[in-house]
Amino acid sequence: MTESLNNMTDYMEFLLIGYPGGQVLQTLCVTLFFLIYVGTLMGNFLIIILTTIDQHLQTPMYFFLKNLSLIDICYISVTVPKSIMNSVTNTHSISFLGCVLQVFCVIFLAGTEFALLLVMSYDRYAAICFPLHYEAIMNRGACVQMVVAAWLSGCFYGSLHATGTFSVHFCGPNVVHQFFCDIPSLLRLACFRDQILEYVFIITSCCFAFICFTLMTISYVHIFTIILKIPSVQGRFKIFSTCVPHLTVVTLFLSSGFVAYLGSTTKSPSSLNLFMSVFYSLLPPSLNPVIYSLRNSDVKMALYKILGEKMTARP
Question: For residue 112, how many other CB atoms are within 10 A of its CB?
Answer without folding.
Answer: 26
